[in-house]
Amino acid sequence: MAELLQFIFSGLTVGAVYALVALGFTIIYNASDVVNFAQGEFVMLGGMATVFLAAAGLPLPLAAIAAVVITVAVGLGLYLFAIKPARGASAVTLIIITIGASIALRGAAQIVFDKQFHRLPSFSGDDPIHILGATILPQSLWVIGGAGVILAALWWFFRVTLTGKAVLATAANRLAASLVGIDTRFVVGLSFALSAGIGAIAGILVAPITLTSYEVGTMLALKGFAAAMLGGMGNPIGAVAGGLLIGLLEAFGAGYLSSTYKDAFAFVVILLVLFVMPGGLFGARSVERV
Amino acid sequence: MPETPTRETPMPETPMQETLLEVADLASAYGRVKALKGVSVTVNAGEIVSLVGGNGAGKTTLLRAISGVQPVIGGSVRFLGEDVTRLAPHARVDRGIAQVPEGRQIFAPLSIEDNLRLGAYRRRDDAIAADMEAVYELFPMLKARRATPAGGLSGGQQQMLAMGRALMSRPKLLLLDEPSMGLAPILVDQIFEIIASLKQRGVTVFLVEQNAAAALSIADRGYVIETGKIAHEGEAASLLADDRVRAAYLGI
Ligand SMILES: Nc1ncnc2c1ncn2[C@@H]1O[C@H](COP(=O)(O)OP(=O)(O)OP(=O)(O)O)[C@@H](O)[C@H]1O
Ligand SMILES: [Mg+2]
């Protein structure tokens, strides 16, 4: 029982991060049909920039905010200088562009930062909290809670604000969105900024637990992509569910089978989804497209 | 959006013959296929002007070009005297051009109310709620289902939603692309009645149709387009009486 709970805690913690990465994929995919494989780099930048800004003397909260701002700027730059000029290019071309961008960002991070692993101090100490015989780190609660707050904020943005509805409208029907006067390029730029911001926050929240380095983005992008596929590409609820599921799968797999193959589960999920249910658990958005 | 009785609209007194839209020698192509080969069309304020023509004649391409969602390779589009040929689509909505596109193109997953609200996306005034009520008055069946996803509406209801959405921008010029396509005959009559009534509400209409008889019967003037070129133009009544037009488009 205690062991089971322990696996659930660690699964939900890492799953919350995957969920946020998957949401980043989803937001950009819906607004622009681009599968952005640089999504993991946003997570890396958030964590690494915070580490280095804090090391440079900024108080942690300020360093974190600055890191989010920097990452958002990078996300916008990715859109403006790499995606927007390729307007009209095929999906495959755009995917290759984002893969290229992620390699470039990783290279830049290696130069601007370094090749070491870094740890951020935990936000509320490292004393584990005991629950029913299992333990959870306060930082895990920060990760899970932070993901919850981001989800609530996104829900509000898309359901309540006119700008959020304009993003949904653009995803639903780009032509009609242009005809009612929505600047669809602004919407795509906004979705890159939003995804970058979400990725950065995820990277900052999890850095005290998993450590961070210039190359953590690669694996996170893969896991997040698997989560988005599992939930159904383009489906935000599916993305969150997919992220949590993959997190739990990894935790249980590592606990009951072997931690050697922990990272393989995401690949297995990608392959299974591709072969068995291309629409994912919750159905891909493409069914609604004409 | 047309005026409601409770509010004064700042619509200037427009002389009937003020030129609203002036398309001159417009050319457009899909790759190497020329869809418009020098089209000239004028729409004056207060008119209903119909453009009729067969399959693939270039009607949709012309409306897309007027709204700015279709690249042009020659000619110009002027609106209220201003050259808007290179303006972005949203800037043209600001000028007062709205379109009900072919196939309705509603925002299917969004609610009916959100569809209408997004029609007023560019507006910053405080009469949006009142205008939405006016649209609900025009299309009462939309109000009953306002909170449901628009994708659940029937074809005719979607057409009305698309018209309501376009009216929500308070357009000076409403472009309608085959509003009767795929609708039951009784709905077709209803749609044309509503289009004719827009004139009383001060909305100028440029209507594109394959249903030439119905489109010309509610119009002041008309154009006939054939393979990317205007073939005939004139008073709607005289086009309806023209033997060549009757033979080609009215099946008489
Ligand atoms: N997306 C496209 N790609 C290539 N060619 C196109 C495209 N859309 C239209 N065309 C071509 O451009 C020409 C004009 O098409 P358009 O859609 O403007 O005609 P239309 O008058 O609206 O026809 P319909 O009454 O069938 O709607 C046709 O020859 C058509 O085949
Ligand atoms: Mg057409």
From TrEMBL, chain A:
InterPro entries: ABC_transp_permease (IPR001851), BCAA_transport_permease (IPR052157). Keywords: Amino-acid transport, Cell membrane, Membrane, Transmembrane, Transmembrane helix, Transport. One of its GO terms (cellular component) is plasma membrane. One of its GO terms (molecular function) is transmembrane transporter activity. Its main location: membrane. It comes from the Bacteria. It is a multi-pass membrane protein. It is found in: Cell membrane. It holds the Pfam family BPD_transp_2. GO terms for biological process: amino acid transport. The chain crosses the membrane at residues 7-31, 62-82, 88-108, 129-158, 186-212, 224-252, 264-284. CDD domains: TM_PBP1_LivH_like. Belongs to the binding-protein-dependent transport system permease family. LivHM subfamily. This is ABC transporter permease.
